[in-house]
Amino acid sequence: MNLINQIKQKLSKMDLDNSLILISVGAKNYNEAIVQLIKYLNTDKKLPGIYVTVNKPYSTIKRIFEDNDINTKTILFIDAITKSTIGKNEDCLFVGAPEDLTGISIAISEAVKSLPEKRKFLFFDSISTLSIHNTAGSVAKFTHFLTANMRQWGVVGVIILLKRETEQELIDKLYQFCDITIELGGEK
Predict the structure, then answer these.
(1) Rounded to two decimals, what is the model's pTM?
(2) 3-state secondary structure of 188
């Protein structure tokens, strides 16, 4: 089964309201999985949302989404990788560094409050990258804080985990924090 069908099959069986979903994906399928997941949430389910990137600059992610017919006008971006810009523009909050977990937390809180719609998603790409820039303990605490707030905000929360790049201790904690874990095909 191809990745698109895997994603649709697994997510269509779920009640997405106020769910926290951990998506574990191999590096080979990572980019396609991101696009298909956002397309499902934004285009198929018509949910506005927040996309937090700690892997690629906002401008790159936005272009990829637009090239794949995703309505970026209904997505607020948080860019924690572009170091040259700190602040915001009309559809992106810039944090400036994946080490700034407090800044990322504040930006996410602001973004959630700024979307007036009751149903929305919060997509975090990716927890694995945070563990490169921060200690496993700090990332685990951040993830616990984030997932607790996702529940309070009532968003559909999606956290991406790269299979190969994440310490087992952090993976075990993430499994505890999330309601649903989906392993997408591909390399480990």
Answers:
(1) 0.90
(2) coil
Q: How far apart are CA 78 and CA 34, in angstroms?
A: 15
Q: How far apart are the C-alpha atoms of 121 and 135, rounded to whole Å?
A: 27
Residue 138: asked if its preceding bond is cis (omega within 30°), the reply is no
- Domain encompassing residue 134: 21-183
Total tally of structural domains belonging to the chain? 1
pLDDT digits (tens, 9 = 90+) for 35-92: 989 998 998 889 999 999 998 999 999 999 999 999 999 999 999 998 766 666 888 9
Q: Which of 160, 170, 177, 169 has its CA nearest to residue 7?
A: 160
Provide the CA 129 distance to its chain's centre, in angstroms.
Answer: 12
Which H or E element spans position 124?
A: strand 121-125
